[in-house]
Amino acid sequence: MARVTIYGASESGNCLKTRWVAERMGIEFDWHEMDIAAGDTKNDDFLAINPAGQVPCMVLPDGRILAQSAAIMLFLAEGSDLIPEDRYDRAKMMEWLFWEQYSHEPAIAVRRVMVQRHKLPEDEIDPMLMQKGRRALGVIEMRLVARDFFVGDSLTLADIALVAYTRVAHEGGFDLTDFPAVRAWIHRVERELEIDPASP
Asked: What's the pLDDT at 199?
């Protein structure tokens, strides 16, 4: 694949997912770092690229544009072992991609932003975010108690999507000591993707 351009913010797990897939696939890319807090995604130049004003956003060599992390990951990983060949396993992978965006990210990632970026005290953060986040971590724990990866016996996009915010859940106040299978899986995926555990 020819070189692509990815607009993203390194603080965002949704953006890092796309970077990790591109790196795993050996796809050359130019990374445009966006400062969300400074309004980079709301200026006219970027809105001309993605009217939704969101990152990640990828521009192909021919000028075509693709947004949303799952869509970008699927495009970049097409034909690779990150997407199962088996029809059921492939659908199962998609199930986890949908679940991550609906039941995982809205609690864990949102609480992290409130704690890290907005510096809100606990009494100003919706307590339901902690409950929903811990429930999501419990679902992950149950899935991984007897398996190394979410689908099949190797790394897929499901693992990449879910590890992005799970590995930094502690930054939102989530204690992972209650989830040993989750912690072991995080280390496993970080090794697979060659991610520095100390990096954002």
From this structure: 79
Task: Kindly list the domain boundaries of the chain, sorted by start residue.
Answer: 4-77, 87-193
Give the CA distances from residue 65 to residues 19, 45, 46, 72, 161, in Å, rounded to whole numbers and listed in that order: 16, 14, 12, 10, 21
Beta strands in 68-167 (DSSP E): none
CATH number of 4-77: 3.40.30.10
Q: Which CATH architecture has domain 87-193?
A: Up-down Bundle (1.20)
Sign of CA dihedral 182, 186, 187, 192: positive
Exposure pattern of 72-89 as b/e (b: 16+ CB <10 Å)?
A: bbbebbeeeebbbeeeee
Average pLDDT on 145-155 reads 96
> How far, rounded to the nearest angstrom, does the alpha carbon of residue 77 sit from its chain's CA centroid?
15
State the Rg of the chain over Cα.
17
pLDDT at 200 over 80: no
Q: What would the two tokens of residue 45 be?
A: 């130049």
Nearest to 148 by CA among 177, 185, 192: 185
pTM of the shown model: 0.95
- pLDDT tens-digit profile of 22-61? 999 999 999 999 999 999 999 999 999 999 999 999 999 9
Confidence (pLDDT) at 18 = 98
